[in-house]
């Protein structure tokens, strides 16, 4: 069996993820694997028709395709997303149709599920026969138990192709509505006071729905608003995954392009940040993904603490709930407040005008009140993963993270509170006694609410 492997790591042959493929290749010597470093070579693939065509030719002549890719910022690297966009832009979808496929991602299990969801949807959009995904921790290959899982996964995949098993889609195609947004010029202006408002967009088409929504939103304010088209910034390329930033947040691109200065001077100093973009496949554009990946020079340190965030989106966001989840997660993990999202997906122009106006006033109100809503599982779970890894195995090379986490009280491990621990130990001892157990069983409900009731009464 011939398998074309599309390697999504910007590190090319030095990819961690690719070692999982190499391991399978060693254990199944009868199959051949043809690896293409698509992320590492994205610039030449974009420029040279032949480079792209060779990969597509290989896909066409293979029995199966494997997407081998690291998780980057809750998804895949920008370079890999660009390759997926090229498949559609260059009309190469037919070469993928009906190919059996699987996705192998490595990560530290921080939003690997949203990356895997995305890749599954991409495969469904290409009408591929998606069999399964394998999403280990980046170092699982070092463990016997996980090597066995990997062999089982691969064996099952090869059998699926040989047996031509039936498969079904998990994602319905995304449907765009035919709608032209025509804003009215009537609303009263909002005074943002001393709050710095920054709108980031990747669209320079002022006649598009997105362009008009951004303009309408900007005009909701009586005070100055900064609008920056990120596609006009000199950004030399995507994050390379070199981790040179780990020690002191110094990026390998320092002094080579606009990104770091722009991020430090404009984004970090804004009080209100509005991200705006079009839905492109199952996310925003790869340009946006590049912007988000490059933020990794801050490693795992939040850079939007206390800020108000919002999104203005053109396209069917409700059909891409995975992306909505990523928006929420990123805000919560970054200690920011996601005030709202406005799209052109529902309603008429007047309703969208009102939504944009309301978003502007809510952003200012929240900024004035320094309001940051409590985090959900998305933020809390994500923070715990970072906390544990930065405390433990990732302290080196992420020295800057450790220093920041220590200084800012991020190491909130439960065993740090001795009084809570002692209370639990005393109670566990007490309920060993059958009579006490019965008595305490009845007391649990009122006791649990007691401190809260007291607070309601006194505050
Ligand atoms: C820019 C960047 C973003 C990352 N984002 C995530 C993430 O969102 N979730 C996660 O679990 N790991 C994340 N990682 C860790 C990588 O997924 C992990 O190290 C992976 O094994 C690298 O694979 P590779 O060597 O094949 O590129 C990120 C790493 C980098 C460099």
Task: Give a verbal description of the structure.
This protein is of the alpha/beta class and 459 residues long. It has three domains: 2-162, Flavodoxin domain (Rossmann fold, 3-Layer(aba) Sandwich), CATH 3.40.50.360; 197-377, 3-Layer(aba) Sandwich (Rossmann fold), CATH 3.40.50.360; 417-458, no CATH class. It is built from 15 helices and ten strands. The protein has a five-stranded parallel β-sheet, with helices on both faces. Strands 7-6-8-9-10 form a five-stranded parallel β-sheet, with helices on both faces. Strand 4 (100-106), helix 5 (112-125) and strand 5 (129-134) form a beta-alpha-beta unit. The longest helix has 25 residues, at 434-458. The mean pLDDT is 97. It binds flavin mononucleotide. Flavin mononucleotide (FMN) is lined by residues 9, 11, 15-17, 70-74, 106-112, 138, 239, 241, 293, 296.
Q: Identify the bound ligands.
A: flavin mononucleotide
Question: Distance between termini?
Answer: 70 Å
CATH homologous superfamily caption of the largest domain = Flavodoxin domain
CATH class of the largest domain: Alpha Beta
Can I get a quick summary?
With 459 residues, the protein is of the alpha/beta class. 43% of the residues lie in helices and 14% in strands. It folds into three domains: 2-162, Rossmann fold (3-Layer(aba) Sandwich), CATH 3.40.50; 197-377, Flavodoxin domain (Rossmann fold); 417-458, no CATH class.
